[in-house]
Amino acid sequence: MTLTVARLTQLATEWNALLERELAAAGQLRRELHAAPCTSGNEHPAVARLIDELSRQVDFEPIAESGAVGRIGPAGGPAVAVRAELDALPVTELTGAAFASGNGAMHACGHDVHQAALVALVRSAHGLDLPVPLVPLLQPREETYPSGALDMIEAGVIDRYDIAHVIGAHVHPSLPAGAVAAAGGFINAAADELEIRVIGRGGHGAYPHEASDTVAAIAQIALAVPEIVRRTVSPLRPAIISIGTLAAGEGAANVLPADARIFATMRTTHPDDRTALFAAVRRMAESIAAAHGAAADVRRIEGEPALINDGVLATAADDWLARLGVEGAEPMRSLGADDFSYFCDAVPSLMMFVGVRTEGEDPQPGLHHPRFLPGDDAVASVARALMAGYLAAAELALGIEHHRRGSEGAGRE
Questions:
Q1: Starting from the edge strand earliest in sequence, which strands make up the sheet with 239-248, in order?
Q2: Among the four residues 104, 175, 281, 379, which has the most C-beta atoms within 10 Å?
Q3: Tens digits of per-residue pLDDT, 74-128?
Q4: What pLDDT band is residue 407 in, cutting at 50, 70 and 90?
Q5: Are the C-beta atoms of residues 295 and 200 closer than 8 Å to each other?
Q6: Residues sharing a CB contact under 8 Å with residue 19, sequence separation 6 or more, in sequence order
Q7: Contact 174/90 with Cβ under 8 angstroms?
Q8: How far is CA 376 from CA 37, 50, 297, 370, in A?
Q9: Beta 67-69 vs 134-139: how paired, if at all?
Q10: Measured between alpha carbons, how far is 257 from 292 in angstroms, rounded to an integer?
Q11: C-beta separation of 385 from 321 below 8 A
């Protein structure tokens, strides 16, 4: 074991030095990717660019329509995958940067940084004596359905590439710039969408007794949703339903519409709550609609499961981050969602968060904001986070028992 740990430590030192040489080119690549974003499902130009950038290091094969996967390092044995998302958002950029997008889409979630970081990591790893294979995952459709991560798994990427662990890192403005949060356990929520339709009899506003008054019904349902959450889910397990759309009528003041609609997001952190909360919402909506002489049709559009990090991986990655000179951060947990959770369900995996800052903005714009623009230094931070994750996963794949310096635990808890 001592020889293997020493080998990993030496590898980390060599790899980190080689990474430093790649960062200038990676920063320029990031700017070019930022200037030419591709929305979900239309990532073919982006994946082609990344494949070209890594043509000397990796033989890629297409997967999940607009994604790609490859492998470097030893020919056999369990592999460690690192993931970068390809897609941008349909957001009009307002950063004013010289390399701002002008095509109506924007990398407002930092995926351009993730892509450039993966390129720098893989380029710097080329030629090193990696102890376990490294599998770059160029993943489409993280922002929309159908999930690119799920499609990759259903296409057999885990088994065909013998992937034992998947590593991800995502920029986030709520953490100190350059700091990385690696923690085990719950990280992101399961994300489902709820559609509630109230269907009844339309009528004249002067004669409500002759109609169902679906507006009154849908309004009462909307007001009842927070109470349903409170009465269904333990306050020790975060959950929320947020209504994004409430629609009824076509603009007339004296027409009672025959139907009305709510479209909402439901976020839960425990599988049991995911089922129980939907059932409770359906019962409530049906009862309120019936009291108004109408019917309710309640549907759940299933999204990502909760993202649960592997605690052993988090502990080891936290230690490797310190060895690489990366500042640690408190655990980052939220009711946000990421389809990286499908990888976590398939194999023990780890998603980390990397602190970034948009210069000249106060307060800091959040993810998906049209002014969100991390600096090029974020590429190095994300690349080192992915490197730490790979080294941690290599320990597990090689059967090394990890001993954290000075303490035990799952990440910086």
A1: 239-248, 259-268, 190-199, 295-301
A2: 379
A3: 998 999 999 999 999 999 999 999 999 999 999 999 999 999 999 999 999 999 9
A4: very low
A5: yes
A6: 120, 121, 124, 380, 383, 384, 387
A7: no
A8: 16, 17, 48, 17
A9: antiparallel
A10: 13
A11: yes
Which H or E run contains 20? helix 2-35
Nearest CA-CA partner of 84 in 170, 24, 26, 209: 170
- Flag whether pLDDT at 406 surpasses 80: no
Single-letter code of the amino acid located at 27: G
The Cα 204–Cα 254 span in angstroms is: 6
The Cβ-side half-sphere exposure at 304, using a 13 Å CA radius, reads 30
Residue 84: closest CA among 49, 133, 56: 49
Q: Look over the chain and give the mean of its residue pLDDT values, rounded to a whole number.
A: 95
51 Rama class: left (phi>0) / alpha (psi -120 to 50) / beta: alpha
What per-residue confidence (pLDDT) applies to 409?
Answer: 37
- Residue count of the chain: 413
Q: In Å, how far from its chain's centre is CA 365?
A: 18
Cα–Cα distance for residue pair 86/62, rounded to 1 Å: 13
Q: Among 222, 209, 204, 206, which residue's Cα sits nearest to residue 260? A: 222
pTM, entire model: 0.91
pLDDT tens per residue, range 165-208: 999 999 999 999 999 999 999 999 999 999 999 999 999 999 99
- Give the separation between CA 200 and CA 248, rounded to whole angstroms: 12
pLDDT score at 7: 86
In terms of DSSP bridges, do strands 185-188 and 255-256 run parallel, antiparallel, or are they unpaired?
Answer: unpaired
DSSP 232-257: HS-TTS-EEEEEEEEEE-SS-SSEE-
- CB count in 10 Å sphere of residue 23: 18
Give the integer Cα–Cα distance in Å for 249 and 176: 47
Over residues 200-213, the pLDDT tens digits come to: 999 999 999 999 99
Question: Is the distance from CB of 117 to CB of 386 less than 8 angstroms?
Answer: yes
